[in-house]
Amino acid sequence: MNFITFTEAKLRDFTYSVFKKMGCSDAHATLAADVLIRSDLRGIDSHGVARLSGYVRLWEKKRINATPNIKIVHETPTTATVDGDGGLGLVVAPFAMQVAMEKAEKYGSGWVAVKNSNHFGIAGYHALMAVEKDMIGISMTNASPLVAPTYANERLLGTNPMCYAFPAGKYPAVIVDMATAAAANGKLEIAQRANKAIPDGWVQDANGQQSLDPNELKNGGSLLPLGSDKDHGSHKGYGLSATVDILSAVLSGANYGPWVPPFVAFLEPPTDPVGEGIGHFLGAMRVDGFRPAADFKSHLDNWIARFKSAKTVDPTKKVIVPGEPEHDFEQERKLSGIPIIDVVVNDLNELAAKLEIEGL
Amino acid sequence: MNFITFTEAKLRDFTYSVFKKMGCSDAHATLAADVLIRSDLRGIDSHGVARLSGYVRLWEKKRINATPNIKIVHETPTTATVDGDGGLGLVVAPFAMQVAMEKAEKYGSGWVAVKNSNHFGIAGYHALMAVEKDMIGISMTNASPLVAPTYANERLLGTNPMCYAFPAGKYPAVIVDMATAAAANGKLEIAQRANKAIPDGWVQDANGQQSLDPNELKNGGSLLPLGSDKDHGSHKGYGLSATVDILSAVLSGANYGPWVPPFVAFLEPPTDPVGEGIGHFLGAMRVDGFRPAADFKSHLDNWIARFKSAKTVDPTKKVIVPGEPEHDFEQERKLSGIPIIDVVVNDLNELAAKLEIEGL
Asked: Which of A86, A91, B30, B105 gives 20 to 30 Å between its CA and that of A71?
C-alpha cells in the first residue's frame, strides 16, 4: 500500500469539478466537496474522496438527483420535515441542519427529519455546524441494511451512526460520532486488504454463527450491533440503531429497516419501497437556552481536563476525549496535506478520464 | 431464593406510606410510588421497591429533601433548566418532563435539563409520559461513578442510562431504555447471589485487568462501557455515557463525572462538588410536528411487524422489539401480582417497623 499526499486545495478543486460535471450548481458542488474534504482532513478516510466515484455511479443510474429542489414539507416552530428530492445527502443534510439552527436561534431548539435523501458523509460535519454557533448539534442517518439485530439471521439495519457535538472553551469540541454496529464496514475492508482475521463479535456468517473472516459480508453474513452478543449488550446496540432508523425514516417518510436502498450502484433498491430514499435526523439546541454559554464551556473544559488526566491501565495509552483524534488529524493535515491510498488515487484518475476533467 | 407475590395495590399503598412518613406531600408520595411500582410491574425489579429503603437512608442523612421547591431557573420557548431543590428524582423528573411536554404542545418540541436532583427510577417512566400524548419521549440521567472509560483505570462515569420512546399504533410503544455500560450493577448482584462467574467484558479489576469475578466492584474494580474493550467498541459506550453526562449535568449545572454523589448513604459525596446534586435530561417532540401521527404509527407498526418476523439463528429465540418484554411483564403482573424476593420483603418490613407503619 502506497499513499500519495495532496494539498487540501488540490483535492477540494478536484472534488468540486466532479460534482460540477454531474450537473450540480456551484453552491452545491462547493458544499458537497467541503463535506468530503473535511472527512479526509479529519482522518475518516472511508467517508471522504474515496466515496466520490460511488456517488457518480449512483448519479449515472439516476439514483441521485444533481439538481434537487430541497424543501420543507411539514413544520411547527421547532420541528420540520425536509424532502431532499433525491439529492446528494452531502447538500440535503446541511440544508436541514440550517433549518434546525434557524429554529433554535428563535425558539431555543430545532429538529428536522429528512426523507428522500442519500448518503450524507460524516455525521460530525453537520453536528459541527451547530457547534460553531454555540449550539449542541445532533445528527444521525439510516443506511442500507448490513446489521443483524440480536437473535436475527438477516440484515435489517444499517450501521446507522449517531453524533452528538458540544462546544467547549479552550479545548476542541467534544464530538461523539459513532456507528451503532460493533465495527463499521471500513474496518472489515482494512482487514480484507491485509488478509487478516478480525476480532470475534464483529460479524456472523450466513448461518448466524460467529466468524473471524473479514469477507463474511460478501458470503451472506451480517455485521453485529455494538455489544456483539446478548451477553455483552448487543440488544443495546440494536436498540440504538433502531432509534436512529425510527427518527431518521419512520418519522420523516423515508425507507427504513430492510427497505433502505443500497449505497452501491451494482445493487438495485427494493421494488417495494415503504418510503422515499434514505432518512436523516438533525437537531440543534442553543447552549444558552439552559445556562450561560460561558458557564457551560468552562465546565465542559473542566470535564475534558479531568478525563484527559485520568489514571490509566497502560501508561502509553491515555484516555481519549471523543472527537480529539479527529481534531488532531485536522490540524495536522491542514498543514502537511492529505495522504490518499494509491488504489483510491487510481480510481479517481479513472473517474477524471471518464468525466474528461483534469486528474489528480 | 423465595418470592412472595403482592398485588399492585398493596405495594403501592405501602410505598405511598413510606414516602408520606418521609414528609412528602400527598401528590409527591403518590407520584413517587407510581414511578417505583411501574418499575416492578415492568419487570425491572432492581429499580422498584427494592430501592425504597435506600431512598429513606439518603433522606435520613439529609441528602434528599422531602419537601422540595422544584422550579424553572432558566428558559426559552423550548428549553429550560429545572432546579430540583434536592428532591426525589422520582418527582423532579416527572415535573421536568411535564415542562418539556407543555413546550412541545405549543412549539413542537421541549427540552429540559435538571440539576440538584437524585435517582429518578427507570428512565422509561418519564419517556412514556410523552408517548401517551403522541409525542416521542427522551430521558436520561447521570449516576454515581462506577464505569471506567476506555483505557482508564478509575471510575469516572455512571451507568448513565438513555431512553427513547416512540408511540406505535396497534403494537405497544417502542422503548429503548438502556444503561450505557456493558452490564448494569444489578446483573453483577444476581451473579453474586448465585456465586457464579460473570462473562468477560463486564468488569475490570483494581489493576485494570479483565475479571470474571462479580465482586470486583467491591475490590476497587470498575464496570466497563458498552462494547467492553477498544476492539469491540468500548469507546462508543464511553462516548454515549459521556453524552448523557454532558446533557444531564454540564448543561444543567449538576455534578458530573467523578463528582456525582453516590446513591448509597454509607458513601459520602465528594467534598469538592462542581455542581448541585445529580442531573437529568428530558425531551418531548410531537410526532405530528413531522408527519401526521396516524402515518407515523402505521409505519412504526410495519417496522415492528417486520422485525418481529425476522429470520432467526435459533428458532426458539425470536427477535425482540425494544420495550416488548417490559410491556408483557406489565400486562401479566397487573393481573397476577408482583413477585418480590424475600430479602427485599424482609428489608421492607424492617423499614416499616422503623417508620412505625404497617408492614407488607
From this structure: B105
